[in-house]
Amino acid sequence: MNQDELKAQTGQESVNYIKSGMIVGLGTGSTVRYMVDELGKRVQAGELTGITGVTTSSRTAKQAKDLGITIKDIDDVDHIDLCIDGADEVSDDFQGIKGGGGALLWEKIVANASDKIIWIVDESKLVHQLGKFPLPIEVIPFGAQLVFNRLEKKGYKPSWRMDGSNKFLTDEKNYIIDLHLGKIDHPAQLADELIHMVGVVESGLFLNRVNDVIVGTQNGPKILHAR
């Protein structure tokens, strides 16, 4: 199977964990698109009823609405039963980097409101140590260059996330700076350092959050239990 087939397999498998009546956090990314498509099919077929989605991006919200899935704003629900989202890297100890699609802030807010979190990935996303994938951080536009310069002085090899010739804008109209670290020896320490930088809204380090990881492999979906 190619990578797209692995993603489809994983996304479809994850819908088996959604039960009628659930409030579901719907993530962002290429693997999640397959999950939302499958969820839409089961909702339309009447196999799943009373499903409410809370999305982590405007892109996912549009996809879900077009498929007939009821969508609510996160401020209109008191909890989320299950969040299903992708990840850009998952380490051996179940720490993650997310935000390759530019939705890390909304993803973290939805994750924080969720009773259970499942990440869906193909096997290429499993790593021994985080850091090969560039670590995204979301920064407000005002003073963003100062933040960039500070990161550069620290040797974090920052680059602006671009959208053509313009800086990429998140759904909150913020910028993203990607840090090309190669490896992250102390993720918790780095996450704490970044979140305390004035101007930084959030980092793409998702630590001690996931419950289960569904991995697409050549031999079918594999479930890894984190906690």
Note down, in words, how this protein is organized.
The protein is of the alpha/beta class and 227 residues long. It folds into two domains: 3-127 and 207-220, Rossmann fold; 135-204, Alpha-Beta Plaits. The chain contains six helices and 16 strands. The radius of gyration is 17 Å and the shape is globular.
Number of helices: 6
Number of domains: 2
Structural class: alpha/beta
Overall pLDDT metric:
97
Q: What is the CATH C level class of the largest domain, in words?
A: Alpha Beta
Order of helices and strands: HEHEHEEEEHEEHEEEEHEEEE
Specify the overall morphology: globular
Protein name: Ribose-5-phosphate isomerase A
Keywords: Isomerase
Subunit structure: Homodimer.
EC number: 5.3.1.6
Helices and strands in order, then pairings?
Layout: H1 3-14, E1 23-26, H2 30-44, E2 52-55, H3 58-66, E3 70-71, E4 82-85, E5 89-90, E6 96-97, H4 104-112, E7 117-122, E8 135-139, H5 144-153, E9 158-160, E10 162-163, E11 166-167, E12 175-179, H6 187-195, E13 200-203, E14 205-206, E15 212-216, E16 222-225
Parallel strand pairs: 1-2, 1-4, 2-3, 4-7, 7-15
Antiparallel strand pairs: 5-6, 6-14, 8-12, 8-13, 9-12, 10-11, 15-16
Binding site for substrate: 28-31, 85-88, 98-101, 125
InterPro entries: NagB/RpiA_transferase-like (IPR037171), Ribose-5P_isomerase (IPR050262), Ribose5P_isomerase_typA_subgr (IPR020672), Ribose5P_isomerase_type_A (IPR004788)
EC number: 5.3.1.6
